[in-house]
Structures are given as C-alpha cells and as structure tokens.
TrEMBL record:
<dbReference type="GO" id="GO:0008270">
    <property type="term" value="F:zinc ion binding"/>
</dbReference>
<dbReference type="Pfam" id="PF04434">
    <property type="entry name" value="SWIM"/>
</dbReference>
<feature type="domain" description="SWIM-type">
    <location>
        <begin position="74"/>
        <end position="112"/>
    </location>
</feature>
<dbReference type="GO" id="GO:0097196">
    <property type="term" value="C:Shu complex"/>
</dbReference>
<protein>
    <submittedName>
        <fullName>ZSWM7 protein</fullName>
    </submittedName>
</protein>
<dbReference type="InterPro" id="IPR007527">
    <property type="entry name" value="Znf_SWIM"/>
</dbReference>
<keyword id="KW-0863">Zinc-finger</keyword>
<dbReference type="GO" id="GO:0000724">
    <property type="term" value="P:double-strand break repair via homologous recombination"/>
</dbReference>
<keyword id="KW-0479">Metal-binding</keyword>
<keyword id="KW-0862">Zinc</keyword>
Length: 138
C-alpha cells in the first residue's frame, strides 16, 4: 500500500478496536483527524451513510464506488490509492496538501469497520465503469 506506516497502523488499530468493542475509541478518532486532517469527519459521515460499495467481478478484480455528499458517484482504487474526484486530483496530486480525499479514506474506514456494501458485477459491467471514468476525464 502507499499509505505511510503511521496511517496503516491507525487503520489496523481502528479495525481491531471495532472488532473487539463495535465502536471506535475517541483517541483513535483524534488520530484520524490528526493524520488525515479535514478529510476525517466527512469520510466518517460517508461510512455512517453506507456510501461505499465494493464491486467485485468474477475474475476477482475489485474496485470501490463512493456516493459523494454531492450525490455524484466516484470510483476509488484502494490497491493504488486513487480516487476520481476533483479534490483528489487537486489536493492530493497537484498541491500535495493531503494524503487522500474523503472518498478513499471512507473506503479504508469502511473496510476496517466492515461497512461496505457488496455488489457482484460482470467483467463487462466493470469494464464499462472503468471506460466511463476514462471518458469523463478525457
């Protein structure tokens, strides 16, 4: 993964705490805010709203879609730490101000908390999602 070790460790601790107690302790929530800054609270909101869907194709390819607060669907790739939203392109890639956007953080948090919607899609459906994203960017 491309996250710094401290962020990886925090997500592991959140997952463990949630498995043990079904909640995330305040010190870990503060750690989230410290490491991920302004993305932390909106990402938790997205997780609470169950806005993260994990798409899996028969070949085992996985990608995530996050329904943003604006109602737009963003595609996130946790394997390479990327989101199609404008904030990711600007704040993360261009300005280097943030580790990630709220959508990709919501993906990581929903994985840790077991809060992903699951959706099986065909290879063709997955390809169409990927091609649609490419057309929007181009």
């Amino acid at each position: 993964s491309t996250l710094p070790a401290v962020a990886e460790e925090l997500l592991r601790e959140i997952k463990k705490a949630f498995q043990d107690t079904s909640q995330v302790p305040d010190d870990l929530l503060l750690g989230l805010k410290f490491i991920f800054g302004p993305s932390a609270v909106p990402a938790l909101d997205l997780v609470d709203q169950r806005s993260v869907t994990r798409l899996r194709s028969p070949s085992g390819r996985i990608l995530y879609q996050v329904l943003g607060s604006s109602g737009k669907l963003y595609t996130c790739y946790s394997s390479c730490h990327f989101c199609t939203c404008p904030a990711f392109g600007f704040s993360v890639l261009q300005k280097n101000e943030s580790l990630l956007c709220k959508h990709i953080l919501a993906v990581y948090l929903s994985q840790a908390l077991g809060a992903c919607q699951e959706l099986a899609v065909s290879e063709e459906q997955l390809t169409n999602i990927l091609l649609a994203e490419e057309e929007e960017e181009g």
